[in-house]
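Hi U.,

Before I forget, here's the chain from the pilot set. I'm dumping it here mostly so it's searchable later in email.
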Amino acid sequence: MRRWNRKVWLVGGCVTGIAFCAALALQSLPASENGGTERTRTEQAEDGEAARPVANEAVWEEALLWSEASGAFSSHADTPVVVLRTDDLMLFVRNGELRYARKGADQGVLMHFPEKLQVTRWPGDRGLLLGGTPEAAPAAGQTLIHSWTYIPLPLEKENPAASVRTMGPTDFAPAEAVRVRAIENPLRLLIQTRSSGERNEYMLTPGSDTVRYVSSILPPERDLPDRIVPQTHDDRITPLVPDRSISGPAQPIYSFRSEDGTLLYQTEPSESAAFYPGLAYDSSVRVAAEKAGEERFAVLLKSDAGATYMASPGESWLYPWHAELSTPGWVALNKHSLYRLTESRLETAAYRFVRGGAELHMSALPLEDLTYVGRTGTRLEFAGTKDGGGVFLSLHDLSNLQTPEPRTADLSIRAQLDGVPIPSEPAAPAPYFEERRVPFSKFDPDRWPSTLPAGLTEELDKLRDMGSGDAMSSTTFYEHSGTWYVLEYDRLSRFVPEREPLKRLEFVARLPVGVSCSVSNYSVCRTAERFLQASGHWFVADTYKDRLLKLNDRFEIVGETNVPLPTSVLLDEGGGLSVEALDGTYRFDLELRLDGKRERGFTAVPAGSDTVASLFPSAYWEDASTGLLWYYESGYLHQYRSDTKTVRSTYAGHLENARGAFRIVPYRDRVLAFSDHLLLQFRRADGRFLRAFRFDRAEPDGIYDTSPTGENSFVLDQQKSRLYLVQGYRILDIDLESGTVRELFRQDHAELGRIVLDRDRLLFTLQPGGRWAGMQHDDPGLANELIRLDLGTGRTARYGIPDSYYSGRISGDGLILSLFEPAGSGRAPELRIPLDRLELR
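Structure:
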């Protein structure tokens, strides 16, 4: 009766006094300094029954008035916040403690929060996840560190506090989490976040500080990240149930299927997880390899559209799968290439890596009148069935030569040419840059406006300090109605000074603009040079897509017009748009209708503007016939008149492969100024701009550490109005009159030497295995080659030459080859190959 009366009193009293009941509930909770169990008191029943633990029943009754956790709440709130409530267990937070109450059993403290946190909870069927963000602002120069706690259910019976598992800490905040998924065995939590328009996922291990990134690998037909991110927060833990265990090369690989894709998880050789949106498990494959124990294992995934992709464990790539690769006989040459030899054909399948993913390139070479003899590494030997002569073919050549119909004559090594040593001292390497005094420079080490708020400058500095230093973007600023906008790469953000440090740039949108990157041991990317807002629209000088854009308030293109290399867009006094571009200044109205254009003229050079600059030796030329000085510096091509002390500066962009060089070359009555992807023509007499040719780099690209030695080397045939240029893995033929550009030769992943013109043919060296093949001695088949390319027919002839020599120049009736690093090698620094030896058929 006493318990019944108390219940009636509590419920009845709460009808008239909620605040009083809440206070009573707080008083009924015992205080504790340490986590652990607090045993309940017992009552002796009036009829003499044994004592029973019932004291915390009042807590359960009083908790009917407590608020349930919703969104973020304080860890040190005076009023209890319930984070989990089941039929027999309740977890709640009060005054810096996470407490528990087991119905009819015990209650106590599971953990103490070390500082005041804003806490978010995710309950699940088998546990509870808590994420905490410090309420206090971080110290100067520091960033917020977020803590995570997981409580498996049920709690340990004897010591519930031992159930608590801490994780992290992390630099991503609980407020950024949009979904939490769990792998039950072994226990792993996958936290998906969305911040500044980016979708990321991390794998946390309860009880460990290990945080692993979960790769999200999109198939080419599904390239929109928004499709794989829930647009609303999921406030519960979603269990992932494996749909199969796949027998892998070491330990099993587990496949987890969800409504939006497939997750593959493995523990060996290292723990990793990868998510494949829109794909479902199909099967697994094994391909024989050259070496025992190196067979290729992969998982095949299929899209809703029926496309099949190959996923290799531990790699962040999807490879398109061709049904032919499932037929017998294929052998893995390396991680990304396969071959198959039959009596009538030699077939190869090679994957090429491009921005949209990997592409499959398959070749088949008919083996007419050839009988297989044997192989040395990746070089195969055949015998002619008619004459018995030996024919040598490189698997690398066949895999990577980009031609629709490969022929044995184009691929076979015709002869070995050892050359004649030239006894000479090694030539000193030419300087990459040279210091010159120039009359004028556009170089500005700090392009940021002086009017930037101090907080924005500080925010950008901190964000850059956090990066790896391997890549950075130019920054374009715009201030409108007191709000500062920042464009880096294609990401537009606005500065919100009230936010905490490192969170003050709020993502707005991705703009449909071009980005040009200069790649060396780090990457410097450049984005649209200027944008503004007017009449409810955004206008963007889309520098690297040669256009002026008009965007609506959703940043969708509603208008565009072609403008070559625009670097500025401003509102003029008449309310129109003034656009600085490659060939002058354009004026448009707000509907992008052209309203005039004027050429860029010479302007006076301010006194004291001369300075010392680091220039490409090939990018400085003084024309004795006109007195005009031409030089390229910091992205600008300058024309300087010493008699009038005036200059005309034209933005010409930057090299995309920083291993190349900008060049200024006289050509008939014109001057050519070109980089590795853009050629400009000017009238020689007065420097007036004439035209521009673009030839974008191809993928895959020989760039940075895969740059060929011959990168950016060229031959100008003035008689035929042709410029031949090495760009990555290919040789281009540029018609200087028509402006047409065609690919003359391309062999991916090969090391090309400098091109040399000999009558109607180009000569150059080629190492099939790439730039570093000479340092890899595990493949004796990677022999150095000399290529003769016929400009009339496009056919090639290949010759074997000594390793590590590269094409250099023609001297008399011989081709001179130079040793890559002659110092201390004991080898002749140069070899001479008689040109008549290249006539062998």
